[in-house]
Amino acid sequence: MDDLNDENLQKKPVVVLTRLPEFTLNALQPPTPQQFDSEAESHGSSDSDMLWEPGDDSGDSDFGVVFPPPSPAAEISPIIVSAAFASHSNETRNVRPDLPEPEIKLDMVVLARRRVTRWQRGKIVEIINKDDGRVKYKVIFDEKGKSLVSGHHIAKETTPKLDQLYVGARVLIQSPEDEQCFLPGLLSELPSRKNRNNFMLFRFLVFLDDHTPVYVSLPSLYLVCRQMDDPLGDLPESPHKCFMAQYLRSWPYPHLTHYKEGQILKIELNGVHQKCHVELVDCSLMKVVFEENGETDWIHRGSLRLEHMSKFLELKQNRGSKADDSDSK
């Protein structure tokens, strides 16, 4: 019994240190400025890109959410950031410049709306001044047929000047499938060092009215003559209109997901989220391949078709609604 009472045999507290895996440490510590720079460089973006891990009071923030690291077998969640598109005002301009509107004259060859998503080349044969002050233009199309349209539905068949263009402007591009057809859309990026590539240094992003994003050069753009006060006024009620409203509100800090080539994700196709993988990332766009049928598609990295992006914006909206409710109490 005396041996059992020996102080050398009595229990004493012991601290055991265990080294945590690296990915756990990275998740627990806030990102440093060096991490910001390395993230920006890895995606070819400017050092104004910002990653931010929100706290409990972050519901109204426009900065990105960093998701926790998944297990190796799980689908990898992307980083979602609000990246400053550019620092120069000429690259982020989103207000219509104070310039004279282009003149519309008789016998002018124009691009005019024939159907909602189809514009064609024609000639103005009559200008009609309505009693209420509105002006209508009768256009006879090259491929037969005629239409009576407003200045909102006419574009000059000339290349616009750079100082006429701004994010939110109504523009047309020629259909890649039918050279007689021109497709309407909204200008969504001006040229900057963030959207250059090796093939086209000076390019613009356009969202067509069917939500298709495409990069084009200046000669491929046609500017609508009479811009609406509401840039969304010509869009039908649709998820695309909601997306463009959110996009223009957040500009020049658009929400973008950061995916890598080969990464697995889910994208809405025909009303269902389908699995695909990233084949190529090109600035704000990425080319994906659907696993089920091998079809390819170009998609914007902030599109609501992305499952992670739609969930992120839904969470952000819910947090904003809760904050509004608490303020009203």
Account of the 3D structure:
With 329 residues, this protein is α+β, with helices and mostly antiparallel strands. The chain folds into two domains: 44-84 and 253-324, SH3 type barrels (Roll), CATH 2.30.30; 109-236, no CATH class. 17% of the residues lie in helices and 29% in strands. The chain has helices spanning 22-28, 33-42, 89-92, 239-250, 307-328; strands at 79-82, 109-115, 118-129, 135-141, 146-149, 154-156, 170-174, 182-189, 203-208, 213-217, 222-223, 255-258, 264-269, 272-282, 285-290, 296-300. The termini are far apart.
Give the domain tally.
2
Task: Please tell me the overall pLDDT.
Answer: 79
**Approximately what portion of the residues adopt beta-strand conformation?**
25-35%
N to C succession of SSEs? HHEHEEEEEEEEEEHEEEEEH
Counting helices, strands and paired strands, the structural category is alpha+beta
Number of strands: 16
Binned, the helix content reads 10-25%
> Major β-sheet, in short?
5 strands, antiparallel
Going across the biggest sheet, name each strand in turn: 5-4-3-2-6
Which overall shape is indicated by the principal axes computed on the Cα atoms?
Answer: globular
From the alpha-carbon coordinates, what is the Rg to the nearest angstrom? 27 Å
Low-confidence stretches: 20-74
Give the N-terminus to C-terminus distance in angstroms.
69 Å
Instruction: Give me the number of helical elements.
Output: 5
InterPro entries: DUF5604 (IPR040880), SETDB_methyltransferase (IPR051516), Tudor_4 (IPR041292)
GO cellular component, one term: nucleus
Protein name: Tudor domain-containing protein
Biased composition (Polar residues): 26-39
